[in-house]
Structure formats: structure tokens, C-alpha cells
Amino acid sequence: MSHKVMHICLSHGWGGLEMYPSRIIPELKRQGWEPHGLALSGSRVAASLEEAGITPLQVPTQGRALLAMARILAYLKANDIRVLHCHKSSDLRLGALLSTLRPELRLFFTDHMGVTRPKKDPYHRWAYGRVTRLFAISEATRQRNLAAFPLPAARIRRLYLGIDPAVYAPRLSSEAREALRRELGLPERAVAIGLPGRLTPGKGQAAWVEALALLADGWPDLAWHGVLIGGLTAGEGSNEDYVAALRERVAALGLEGRVTFAGFRRDLPRLFEALDIVCVPSRNEAFGLTVIEAMAAGKAVIGADSGAIPELIDVDNGRLASPEAPDAWAGAMAELAADEGLRRRLGESARRRIRKDFTLEAHVTALIEEYAGNEGELER
């Protein structure tokens, strides 16, 4: 078959879902596939695809994409593209229509968000009925998918996300690392406790701030500094009212000198080198990409004991705490902040786990095996 795939992501947002197509494009190319894209005009998705080396087909809106069906079908035919991969549930309408009009197309869908309500009405039965394979990015999301989608279990596959561990290997000299720490406002001997992610309520920054206050009160002899990494504006994907509330709470708790709002950063792999502990207190992560990125960097990670994060972290490579229990987070942070050797051992174990189970190479290998599968192997 033709080793070509079109990734469809008609979104103006910018999160893990939107970043996914451009993240896997280099590895798709390396493994012999030719990626194409369909995105909204002027979106960050379109820009990211261009940065990854492809020129996406663009449409002004989701609605206009339906009006451009003839143009899209002509593009698919001209480029001999026989595989479509959708990343937003709202894009499945387009994908299902395209595969209906051109039955030889194989249609794939990744549930990046973790479905929360049943989708078994006639429309969804038709749309998902066109899907060759639905990918769940964790076992937690697969269980939700089995309950929510009108698909047999054989058509739903857990496929963990992956990363290139080499990107997260330490590169900074000791002088560059210290300079980065100073840029982040870190005192010379302070244990750096970071929380990367969009600043929105579901990511748990509010509980983390409360935990830092408990840490300051309960372990006054520990030297530490908190770093919030994430955009501070709506344009950077964050909730501006929430950011303002976080700043006010940090001030009210007397933590202004111990917490840095670092803003949106493109150099997260290098920022990990400046951190000693990475926290991910999200309440219900569908996977936890930040978790495996921090693990690949050899960091001691504390993650929420909910959603998919417990599939990634165990007692040998990190710590888990309830996202609703700031006291548990304070205790976990105190344990790790007080023991550099423990942090090192956990980080080394975490790095080994990523190399074994969560590489981008393995993820894309499994993906293209599905793309190239026998078209008749699944009942529609």
C-alpha cells in the first residue's frame, strides 16, 4: 500500500492533542512514511506542521472543511493518500464523510482527552463505525472508551504515547545550569520544585501552592524554591483568571519570594536540568506526557494518584499523592527534598522505564503497523 498518511487536526488550541502530529512527523519520516496534514488556516497546528517540514492543506473553519470536501478528496487522490488520522472528536465527521465517499481510506482516531460521556446515538454510531482503529493513550482511557464508544473491544487499542529520550538527556555545562537556575530565581543551594503545564484548574497548581505553604510551615529547615512553568495568558493556553488567583494566593501565603512564575517556555528539556523535583498534580490526566518527559530527564517525579499517572509511576521511580490532599504533596516533597540520593535513584530508575516502555520510536512503529494493516481484518 501507499505509505502516506494525512493527520487531521482542525483546532485553534495548543495543547498535547494539537502538538501530537508535529511531534511524530520526524519519526514517521524516519520509518519510511510520508506525512501530510489538514489544519485550520493561521492556527498553531498549521505552523507546527510547517516547522516539522510539511506544508499542510488548510481550511478557514471546521464548517468550511465540509464545503471543501471535493478539494480534499482531490488532494488525497493526487497524493495517493489512503490513511487518515483524526485527533479531535469533532473532526471525525469530516473523516467519516471522506471514508464514506472513498471507501478504500483507512480512518484512525486517537482519543487524547479521555471521553467522559457515552457516544452511542445514531450519529456517533455512524461516525465511529467508519473508524478502522481507535487508539486509547492509556489503560484508564481505554476503559472509558470501552464504555462510551459504539465499537467492539477489538477495534480499541491502548497505545501509550512516546518521546525521544535523547532530547531529555542532560546537555548543559555546570555553568550554564547555574545560569539557568539564576534566571528562574533559584537560590544557590535550594531544591528546585517545578510544576510544568498549562495554568488551568484541572492541572492542580492551586493544590500545589497550598502544599508549598504546608512544606514551609512543617519543614522550616528545608531550602527549596517552587517554579511554575506555563503560559500566563489565554493566547498561551492558560486561564488568565486562574493565573491571577494563583498569584494572589501565593502572595497571601507569604510565598512570593519562594515561587517563580516562569511563563511559557520552549526549552522544557533544558529546564528539567535546573529542577530537582517535578510535580504533576493533575486531577484526571488521560496520559501524562509531562510525567514521562520528566522521567526521561532523570528527575524525581511526584504525580497524582488518579487518571493514567499511576500507570507511569511506581514506588521505584517516583511518588504518588492525591491531587485533593495538599498535606500528602507536602510530605512527598519533603521526603524528596531532604534526600538527594533518593532523588538520584528514583530518577535513574525513571529513565530506564522510559527507555523500556515509552519511546517515540516504539510508538510510531506500532502506529504504522496499524496504518499498514490488512484492510479486511476488521469488520466495519
From TrEMBL:
Xref: CDD domains: GT4_PimA-like
Residue ranges of domain Glycosyltransferase subfamily 4-like N-terminal in the record: 14-166
Pfam families in alphabetical order: Glyco_transf_4, Glycos_transf_1
Domain Glycosyl transferase family positions: 177-353
Coiled-coil ranges from the UniProt annotation: none
Superkingdom, taxonomy of origin: Bacteria
Keywords for this protein: Glycosyltransferase, Transferase
InterPro entries in the cross-refs: Glyco_trans_1, Glyco_trans_4-like_N
PANTHER family in alphabetical order: COLANIC ACID BIOSYNTHESIS GLYCOSYLTRANSFERASE WCAL-RELATED (PTHR12526:SF640), GLYCOSYLTRANSFERASE (PTHR12526)
Family according to the record: Belongs to the glycosyltransferase group 1 family. Glycosyltransferase 4 subfamily.
Protein name listed in UniProt: Glycosyltransferase family 4 protein
Upper taxonomic lineage: Bacteria, Pseudomonadati, Pseudomonadota, Gammaproteobacteria, Oceanospirillales
